[in-house]
Every structure is written in structure tokens, then in C-alpha cells.
Amino acid sequence: MRAEDMRDRAREVRPSVAPFEDRQQPLADFLDAAINQYSQVIKHFGRLVG
């Protein structure tokens, strides 16, 4: 399953990543951040290689 698919499914359920109330972050938001960061790393790596 792709990260984007996992994010979309998580938006339907909205589970919490952190067990503590003050640090809760919905899984969908966590996956969005991970996908964005991964995309930035790939772009940066492409500039270094290409």
C-alpha cells in the first residue's frame, strides 16, 4: 500500500499517533508530513545527482 493510500484511509478513521493527549497528531497529518519530507529529499537528491 502506498503512503498516499494509507493517508487517505487514515483520514477516514483519524487514529492518534501519540498516546498522550497533549502530543496527539492524527495519523493522516503524520503521513502528510512524511510524504512531503520524502518528496523534498528526492528533489534534493535529484539536484545533487543530476
Helices and strands in order, then pairings?
Blueprint: H1 3-13, H2 27-49
Helix pairs in contact: 1-2
How much helicity do the residues have? Answer: 55-70%
Instruction: Give the C-alpha Rg.
Output: 14 Å
CA-based shape: elongated
How many strand units? 0
Mean pLDDT: 74
Unreliable segments (pLDDT under 50, ≥5 consecutive)?
none
Portion in strands? under 5%
Count the DSSP helices.
2
How many strands, what sense, and barrel or not for the largest sheet? none
Instruction: Name the helix and strand elements from N-terminus to C-terminus, one letter apiece.
Output: HH
Classification by helices and strands: mainly alpha
CA(first)-CA(last) distance: 29 Å
Quickly count the domains. 1
List the defining traits of the structure above.
about 50 residues, elongated
Please, could you describe this protein's structure?
The chain is an all-alpha fold and 50 residues long. The chain has one domain (3-49). It has 2 helices and no strands. It has helices at 3-13, 27-49. Helix 1 packs antiparallel against helix 2 (27-49). The protein is elongated, with a radius of gyration of 14 Å. 2% of the residues are buried. The mean pLDDT is 74.
What's the quick description here?
The chain is mainly α. The protein contains two helices and no strands.
